[in-house]
Amino acid sequence: MHHITQTTTATTMLLLAVVLMVPWQITEGVENLLLNPSFEDTPAGTWNTKGFRAEQYADDKLDGRYSLRCSERKKKLVGPSQYTTGLRMGSGYELRAYVKLLNDNPDKLWQQLKAVVRFDFTVKVEGNTLRPISERPPRCVGLRDQKRKDCLAVLKTWRDKLKKQNAEKKKLNEQRKKEKQRKKQEKKKKKQKNKKKKQDKIKKQKQREKDKQTKKDKNKKDKEKKNDKKAKDKTKEQKDKERNKAKEQKKRDRQRNKEKKEKDRQKAKDRKEKAKTGKGSGARSSRNQTRIRTLSQLAPSLETQTAERTRRDVYHPIIRQRLLQRQRHRRQAQLPQTPVAGEDEHLMLGIETAQGAYIIAWRAFVRSEQGWVLLTGNINAPMLPFSGAELAIRGPDEGIDFLLDNVTLYEIPERSDWLTASHAMIDEHRKSDINLRVTVPAGVNPADVDVQLELKNHLFGFGSKVEDKLLYRKKTQHFRDMFFNLFNWATIGSFKWRFDKSRDLYSPDFSNAEEALDVLNEHGIKVRAHSIVWGVQKNIPDKVVATPPEELPRLLKFHTEYMVNLTRGKVEHWDVQNEFLHGHWYEETMKDPHVSENIFKMARPLDPKVKLYLNDFTAVNSGANTEDFHDMGVRFIKANTGIQGLGVQGHVKEFIKPTSTMIWRRLDRLAETGLEIFLTEFDIGWRDDVVRADWFEDAMRAYFAHPGLSGVILWGFWKDWQTYQDKYLVYGKDMKFAEQGQRFVCLTQKEWTTRKTFNLRDPIPPSVRGFRGDYEVIIRKRGIPVQRETFTLGKETTVVDIRVTDSNVPIAVQDKHDYVPQCISHRDQKSVGTVNSSLSQSAEFTCSDRMSPTSGSFNGAEVSVTCEAGEIMTSCSSFHAGHSSGTRRGERITVEDGVVTCTAIKGTGSPEGVRASARCCRASELKCDYRQAGPSSPMDGAMAESTCPPGHMPLGCSIFNQYSVLEGAFPNQDMTSCLAQSGPPLSEDPALKSGAVSYAACCSKPGLQCRQVASSQQPIRGVINVTCPLGDVMTGCNVMGEEGGLAGAHIDTDQSSGVSHCRAFVGNDLPDGEAKVSAVAICCNSSSS
């Protein structure tokens, strides 16, 4: 490893000077993970230069003596690379390098530069499991002196071992080949035998069929003889009748034929007379021409109907996508391909699964006259174990020479206080003050009046892409109800050019998108239209690609005007150009670098109210394009295009965990443009539902906290209608909420909302802090709603004056459907340790109490207790020594070196310390796995659930909360997990918010059966007791109370009777008659005890 301060003085000074100019700053002394970054030493031994000529270059450099000249490149993706072992899983890393092109490609407007980090994964994903990858050879590139010699020696050993393994493998393959040949011969003989049997069987079958047919023919002949005999037996009278009848019929036929011939002769005679006089020919000719025109008009009509029917049948997204793929393959085979930046899009989209390559930096618009160009970007290392990584600078087109200098790769440390910081940022940037002033008329008792204040619609955008048909089909009413409940924004993606149902480019048909837009407008949903043009060639319609270049300007002008006029006054945003950083087909085809800028200029005056956006990816979900997207936004502003926003897509790839530090770093850079920023296509993929939900929640908190972001649009939310099947909120025909969907609802509609009720017998607080958006105020008299007022809360303090009327007439109040009544989080599920019993099988199932001394009286004081040798802890609880209320932070279970510790933590507000109580049991074959989950959302009533492994059940439940009130811990009804419920925060300070953490002592034992026993909720002060049924052993005890303020619980065993009591303590400062508290015990029995 090298330190930047260990490089030459000139290099250090220049680096610091550059830092002062570039917003993505690095500090002096940061550790560079690359060797020889300025190429002052020969690149051999530090940089891999295979496939091109690399040499130190002294004529053009940033500082020092040399830069690196890369020439004689025969392939596009060839460039210098270096291997490093300094990267850590999940950490953030940033690259800064300077590149200068020495020549250009005359056939292209721009060149692209990129840097790729290729990780050597030590595991691979198979389904939901990780499998080790076979041993890899050591990498000796970048090592020097003795280390290099040692590495080469290890490499030689590895190669010898591999050679031996290959020889053994070859021998084994030969044996397998011989065995396979033997089996093949046996199979062939068996096949021949079966074939002969089959032939014999067929021969017999044919003979049977022949005999059957012979018998059938004989029966037929006999029947014919009988019929002939019957015919001969007919009487002569009958034959005469038939003969006479036939004669009469012939006579009638001759008469009709005679009359017909006479009519034909008369018609022929009439036609000759008309031909002589010339009458009737023009009319007949006109009728014939009319007939021909009608048929000619009918043909295209039939063709149009067939095309319409075909388009209607294939409009389903999945079928249409497959057809479009086939069309693209045919187009690529027929049309000449123009080289565009999108050729390597599969790399930009994220991971190359086989090699583990990620784009860390990307520059899309580079030419030689620009001189030295900063290639910078950042990534989060994937959440898969890897042994090392290789950084590769991938150059432009083959034949383009370039210089490289000052390459720096360094770590960006994650903020440890990011969650607390996000709470404070959300309070600052997403909330404002409400001054609510209510006047009550004379004659109305203020105690009878309740004022209910509720946020109905966020100012911040929460939305999703929506499929057209789901908005107007009769069978999708449930989907529409859920969509309008969850979101206030929508993206219609079928405004893309390839969804035009018409074959004529100048008579487009976007009727499906129009119908969906009307439905969304009717329900007050704001809409993003996506998109006017898309520069990546494979996403451009064939009919557009086939248009001659000289016709494209006229076509683009028509298309832009048509699309903007189509949605005028109906949409909030238009994505004018999609993924311009990754595809420049229009510019390259028309040889005009200003095509996209001109499209903006054409669109701006057509709808002055709509905001025009650039939309692209890897600018926030990763940092590969952040700098380039920032520069492009600035360029469009300087060109007076009328641009108003940057849309960042946000497709987070597998194995990449989004972190707030990197998200905020990227958004800070984009926000410097002054443009509005929307996250337009957000989704996260991971095979584990809980892990995916954890990452989704963390990312949502980071996005909502940043002041530069105005909205988050999901790229679909229903699994049945999503392209990516592991990125959904709801699934199934009945649209059940997955863990990720529950987190979304709990954030947007519970934690990030404002609902307050004031009774006018007490003064209303002078200032109420609320989330920004549209509010509804309901006035209730004696519980009956009689008056409604509305207002909007923006960035400034809003004064709301309400005059209560004399009316007592009830009004209708419509509440939102609550799709997630209880917020239960399973985040960060893990085991803190396991313990197994070492007792003999004859040992009985018995339990004892172990109590700690009293802790100190200061906030955060801790005290612990452990079990004795041979005992296993099944429960951990805590309580205030004097049973006062105050606040406990609860208890925590830790396991170290096989010893389980129960720790009680004191909170604020009580003069007394706390004590820790452990339940310690002895039993044969008892195994316990101590599980932890949480924290929950930091709000009243939110829960964290720690789930037991299969075959285990919770014998004790514990709760911990850093700041908020504790409402208790208890097992679920199925006895498969423990739930810890949080109360309201103790302070209005947003930095003092935290959720509940759940602990579960999950144990198993043959024949063990357990159940929950709870006392009835009792509105009294003092102690609440509950005992187990006769024959059961109490293994756990805790307290549950909806009002919080609990003094704790512990198990107390009567020494004389041996009966164990679960004692729950009600805080002495809770109002009498209001505190509903239960003692919750877990009772078990074992058939083997």
Topology:
Blueprint: E1 2-3, H1 9-21, E2 31-32, E3 53-57, E4 67-71, E5 81-84, E6 92-101, E7 111-121, E8 123-126, E9 129-132, H2 145-232, H3 236-277, H4 281-313, H5 317-334, H6 345-348, E10 357-366, E11 373-380, E12 386-394, E13 402-412, H7 418-429, E14 431-439, E15 449-458, E16 461-466, H8 468-472, H9 477-486, E17 489-492, H10 511-522, E18 526-534, H11 542-545, H12 552-566, E19 573-578, H13 585-590, H14 595-603, E20 611-616, H15 626-638, E21 643-648, E22 651-652, H16 660-671, E23 676-684, H17 689-705, E24 709-714, E25 730-731, E26 736-737, H18 739-751, E27 755-759, E28 768-771, E29 773-781, E30 784-793, E31 798-803, E32 824-825, E33 830-836, E34 846-851, E35 862-866, E36 872-880, E37 888-896, E38 899-906, E39 914-922, E40 927-933, E41 943-947, E42 953-961, E43 966-971, E44 977-982, E45 996-1004, E46 1008-1014, E47 1022-1027, E48 1033-1041, E49 1046-1053, E50 1060-1066, E51 1077-1086
Parallel strand pairs: 14-31, 16-17, 16-24, 17-18, 18-19, 19-20, 20-21, 21-23, 22-23, 23-24, 32-41
Antiparallel strand pairs: 1-2, 3-4, 4-13, 5-12, 6-11, 6-13, 7-10, 7-12, 8-9, 14-28, 15-27, 15-29, 25-26, 29-30, 33-40, 34-39, 35-38, 36-39, 37-38, 40-45, 41-44, 42-45, 43-44, 46-51, 47-50, 48-51, 49-50
